[in-house]
Amino acid sequence: MGFQKPWRLALLCLLLAALTACAPLTLPDRSGCERLHARLAYCLLTPAEMGRSLERLDRVQLRSPAGRQDFIGQLAVDEKRFLLAAQSLTGMALFRVEWDGEQLSSRGRFPDEAPEPIQLLALLQLLLAEPEDLNRVIYGGHLEVDEQGDRRLRLDNGRVILRILRASDTGMIEMIMDEDIRITLEPLSS
């Protein structure tokens, strides 16, 4: 009889651990939070939390199982806003996404197979912000940075769901999401 109680307790502990691991990830109750994966959530940093102003102009290539799309992306960050605008290679406006730390607004036509507007901003923040700041707003995983500056977003179970690779000689950046979506940023001179 005494042997059965510890066995039942061990079985109950295993069952509870399995249920907890399968429980859905709850998003924090704040604006700008989005699920980037079934087991990972990210809350956008406010523009002020980005810690620096910057501007980038890139030729962007989006490759997915549906095909390839190219466009020009312009990013502007200051203490009040985080702005991403895109235009076709011929100069036609495509889309615009803006985040002021409280409200996200977007308009325009987004490329097929592109991540959602909030996910696009999250990807750019994962590329540009300080890892310590990012790890405060990642739920269900963490960001790692290696000696070369490449970044990996890992789930708590160790699986890598995003790799950000930098070519130091050209400034090109490649983001690979779950191996089926690739976004390449090639800096354009201003």
UniProtKB/TrEMBL annotation:
Matching InterPro entries: DUF3261
The organism's place on the tree of life at top rank: Bacteria
Signal peptide: 1-23
Keywords: Signal
Entry protein name: DUF3261 domain-containing protein
Organism encoding this protein: Natronospira proteinivora
